[in-house]
Task: structure prediction
Amino acid sequence: MHSDPHLADPSLADPSLTAEALDAADPLRGFRDRFTLPKDVLYLDGNSLGPLPANTPARVARLVEQEWGEGLIRSWNDAGWYDLPRGLGDRIAPLVGAAAGQTVVCDSTSVNLFKVLTAALRLRPGRQVIVSELGSFPTDLYLTEGVGPARRPTTTPEAPEGSASRPGLRRLLGRDGSTLEELLDGDVAVVLLSHVDYRTGRLQDMSAVTELVHRHGALMVWDLCHSVGALPVQLDASDVDFAVGCTYKYLNGGPGSPAFLYAAARHHAAADQPLTGWFGHADPFAFEPGYRPAPGIGRFLTGTPPLLSFAGLQAALDVWDDVDLAALRTKSLSLTSLFLRLTEPLGLESLTPAEPEQRGSQVSLRHPHARAVVQALIERGVIGDFRAPDVMRFGFTPLYLSHADVRDAAEALREVLASGVWREARFAAPAGAVT
Ligand SMILES: *Cc1c(COP(=O)(O)O)cnc(C)c1O
Result:
């Protein structure tokens, strides 16, 4: 177990402190005013869709009215549109422990996974196997099916792939083995894992796992969707090869805001990503008939960026410019520890590790009627979410939640369970509901 310097967690040290006392000592409490949240809502779903930063509407309006409306096509240069995929990447870089020039903002996490997984496979000729985890977010699993020389035949996640004559090209932790080590050998080209598990909130030891993967000659891809903006990430110091992540969860970039992609500088010259569009060309405005990749991280770009969405991300990153990530981690652990402590008497099983150093910034509790309980909480203004089959998921985002909010959320859960209100018919899943 590695030691975590951020465990000076006041609520762990002194359970007698009130939520108000913890909030009075919170160095991040001023950030609440930088978000626009509806009154009477306690928002515990910022790990799925971050709320609206207060400066976003004006920033988006400026892009629409001035940069587009007045500037028209001149804004590609005058407003710096052309440089934004790299420029926004360099603004995200400090949040993921990356030196400049290795991160771009483009496309979706799913599309970027396709690019980096294919690039990693091509960097390890002679090796064909991808290792991932059965419990991964589905798009990550689906993409590991879609990359490679040809799409593999459809298999259910539970049914082993391949045969003795055609060894499986994909191995899944939790299906083909119970430890990563037993899945690694000289056939493995790349390993894809989530830094924080979307369902349980378990945090992986990025450095140790990356080192293990490298010892077996494979490349490491981390999915940071549930860690960027939730805790400090150290991509360079952990010697990571590639990473992807989305910006609409903890970063608050807005619905559908574009994803980011990190590639370590040492791979740029040889990296050969498959979506060779003109934005990744060495000289896009030469309009040459043949593709020549841009030097550096630019070769991971594909097509025209979504500028309206970029404006939302710019506004969100203005907030992040002022955030101390060590303080963020301390408060995150204080909030999740408090929620775990206050809900412990309810007797629900927690999927989230009790050990702070193995925890992201969410708490997941099991209940056989999790969906109905979550719906009853939402009716009371406490917005969490449900993940099939029986998980209630609560995200704790330190920039706009207080310890008093955590206490109130725990109390709401206690009341919903004690009263049995969740049994009422209106909380039953409608047929064909999207969960
Ligand atoms: C949210 C999430 C995604 C989202 O991918 P999109 O392409 O943005 O839809 C991918 N991976 C993980 C682990 C996620 O949590």
About this structure: The chain is about 30% helix and 10% strand. The first strand starts at residue 35 and ends at 36. The mean pLDDT is 93. The chain has two domains: 5-28+324-427, 60-320.
